[in-house]
């Protein structure tokens, strides 16, 4: 019973308190006047804008297949990175691949940048792989590296396809 009376009263009070109320007196409202500024008595020194380091140009992310990864590895044109968790890397990985787990990316990227920079300087393609085509970690890592300016290729078949091809 009380709620059927209190709720409508509360709603009415809310509408009345939030509505525009008419001005009760006829006092004219003063118009704002622009502030007058005096010229400075001493010369103002204009600071030159600080030169900042230009923003890093994002890298690109492409896909690569097993045959191309194999060929590039054989001719030392690829820097291969395993982005799986460390346990999976220890259980087996593409020969010569570095471990850079996505789950530790933020912790290890500073220590990995010299290797990545050296690979880029040597003209190598940075190839990232995960467990298989259902694993998104290689692509997620590639996007993070692209934001840092590195172009990468994602080997979607991953460790499983590499083993099935007899390349382990």
What does this structure look like?
This protein has helices at residues 2-18, 66-74, 86-91, 105-121, 137-147, 158-164, and strands spanning 61-64, 78-82, 98-99, 125-129, 152-155. Mean pLDDT is 80; it is low at 10-25. It is an alpha/beta fold and 168 residues long. Strand 4, helix 5 and strand 5 (152-155) form a beta-alpha-beta unit. Helix content is 40%, strand content 12%. It is built from six helices and five strands, in the order αβαβαβαβαβα. Strands 1-5-4-2-3 form a five-stranded parallel beta sheet. The chain has a domain at 63-150: Oxidized Rhodanese, domain 1. The protein is globular and about 35 Å long.
CATH topology of the domain at 63-150: Oxidized Rhodanese, domain 1
Largest sheet: 5 strands, parallel
Q: What's the overall average pLDDT, rounded? A: 80
Radius of gyration: 32 Å
Q: Which ranges are low-confidence, i.e. pLDDT below 50, for 5 or more consecutive residues?
A: 10-25
* The CATH homologous superfamily of the domain at 63-150: Rhodanese-like domain
Q: Write the element-wise H/E pattern from the N-terminal end onward.
A: HEHEHEHEHEH
How many strand units? Answer: 5
- Give the CATH architecture of the domain at 63-150: 3-Layer(aba) Sandwich
Q: Give the distance, in angstroms, between the N- and C-terminal Cα atoms.
A: 78 Å
Strand content: 5-15%
SSE-based structural type? alpha/beta
């Amino acid at each position: 019973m009380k709620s059927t009376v209190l709720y409508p009263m509360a709603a009415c009070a809310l509408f009345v308190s939030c509505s525009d109320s008419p001005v009760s007196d006829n006092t004219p409202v003063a118009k704002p006047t622009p502030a007058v500024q005096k010229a400075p008595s001493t010369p103002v020194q204009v600071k030159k804008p600080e030169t900042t380091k230009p923003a890093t140009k994002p890298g690109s992310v492409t896909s690569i297949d097993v045959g191309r990864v194999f060929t590039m590895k054989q001719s030392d044109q690829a820097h291969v990175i395993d982005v799986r968790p460390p346990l999976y890397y220890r259980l087996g990985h593409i020969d010569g691949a570095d471990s850079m787990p996505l789950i530790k990316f933020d912790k290890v990227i500073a220590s990995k940048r010299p290797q990545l920079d050296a690979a880029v300087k040597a003209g190598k393609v940075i190839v990232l792989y995960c467990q298989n085509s259902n694993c998104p970690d290689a692509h997620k890592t590639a996007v993070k590296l692209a934001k840092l300016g590195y172009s990468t290729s994602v080997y979607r078949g991953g460790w499983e396809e590499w083993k099935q091809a007899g390349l382990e």
